[in-house]
C-alpha cells in the first residue's frame, strides 16, 4: 500500500510516501510560511522523483491540527480534494501525535507542542509502550508556565516543537532531542495513517483547532463593544 503523508500544520511543511513499511521519499521544509505556494509543486516533484502519479497512491494521511489555522486548512483541503478525485480514503492525524511519533526510541514522557500565540502552546503528552504510542494527556491549550509545572509530574520529560523556542527557560524542565526531531515529519503521518486505516478510522479529514482564531476573537470583541 502506497501512502502519501501531508503536514502543513506548523511552520514546517512535510510530504512523504511510504510503501508498506518502507519510506520511499520525503521532502521537509522549515523555511518561511509559504505552504500554499509550495505544497502542490513539492508534491508533484516528490511523486515524479519516485516514478509515481497520484493514481498510484492508495491512501492519504494528513495532519489535522492543532496548529496554524491557515496551514491546517491548506493541507486538509488538498488531502480531501485529492482523495475525492482519486476515490481513496484519507485519514486525519493529530499534528501533536505525529510529532511525538518521530522520537520512537524515547521511553519517557513526550511533550509535543506548537505555538498557540499569547504565551500559550498546543500541548499533547505521549509515551511509547511496547513500541506503540500512547496518549497520556489529550491535546489542549496551556500557558507556558503551566507547561513547566506539568513537567514536574513526569519522569524524564522530553520537549518537542515550539515551546523551547518561545521560552528558553523551558529547557530547564525538559530533555531536548536533536533539531531534526523537533518538527513534524510526513513519514510519521504516513505510518499513523496506516495504523488508523487498519482500525477502520478513515473518511474525510476534519480540522482540529482547539481555540478560536484571532480574527474570531477580534470580531466578537468588536460586537461586544458595539452593543454597549
UniProtKB/TrEMBL annotation:
<dbReference type="InterPro" id="IPR000905">
    <property type="entry name" value="Gcp-like_dom"/>
</dbReference>
<dbReference type="InterPro" id="IPR043129">
    <property type="entry name" value="ATPase_NBD"/>
</dbReference>
<feature type="domain" description="Gcp-like">
    <location>
        <begin position="34"/>
        <end position="147"/>
    </location>
</feature>
<dbReference type="Pfam" id="PF00814">
    <property type="entry name" value="TsaD"/>
</dbReference>
<dbReference type="InterPro" id="IPR022496">
    <property type="entry name" value="T6A_TsaB"/>
</dbReference>
<protein>
    <submittedName>
        <fullName>tRNA threonylcarbamoyladenosine biosynthesis protein TsaB</fullName>
    </submittedName>
</protein>
Amino acid at each position: 500500500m502506497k501512502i502519501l503523508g501531508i503536514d502543513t500544520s506548523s511552520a514546517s511543511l512535510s510530504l512523504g510516501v511510504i510503501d508498506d513499511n518502507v519510506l520511499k521519499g520525503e521532502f521537509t521544509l522549515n523555511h518561511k510560511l509559504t505552504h500554499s505556494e509550495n505544497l502542490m509543486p513539492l508534491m508533484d516533484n516528490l511523486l515524479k522523483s519516485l516514478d509515481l502519479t497520484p493514481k498510484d497512491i492508495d491512501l492519504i494521511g494528513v495532519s489535522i491540527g492543532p496548529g496554524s489555522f491557515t496551514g491546517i486548512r491548506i493541507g486538509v483541503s488538498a488531502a480531501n480534494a485529492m482523495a475525492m478525485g482519486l476515490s481513496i480514503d484519507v485519514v486525519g492525524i493529530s499534528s501533536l501525535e505525529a510529532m511525538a511519533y518521530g522520537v520512537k526510541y524515547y521511553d519517557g514522557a513526550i511533550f509535543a507542542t506548537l505555538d498557540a500565540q499569547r504565551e500559550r502552546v498546543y500541548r499533547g503528552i505521549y509515551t511509547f509502550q511496547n513500541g506503540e504510542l500512547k496518549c497520556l494527556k489529550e491535546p489542549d491549550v496551556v500557558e507556558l508556565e503551566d507547561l513547566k509545572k506539568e513537567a514536574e509530574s513526569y519522569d524524564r520529560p522530553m520537549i518537542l516543537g515550539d515551546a523551547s523556542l518561545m521560552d528558553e527557560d523551558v529547557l530547564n524542565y525538559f530533555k531536548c532531542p536533536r533539531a531534526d526531531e523537533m518538527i513534524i515529519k510526513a513519514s510519521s503521518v504516513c505510518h499513523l495513517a496506516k495504523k488508523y486505516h487498519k482500525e477502520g478510522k478513515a473518511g474525510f479529514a476534519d480540522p482540529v483547532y482547539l481555540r478560536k482564531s484571532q480574527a474570531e476573537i477580534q470580531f466578537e470583541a468588536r460586537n461586544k463593544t458595539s452593543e454597549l
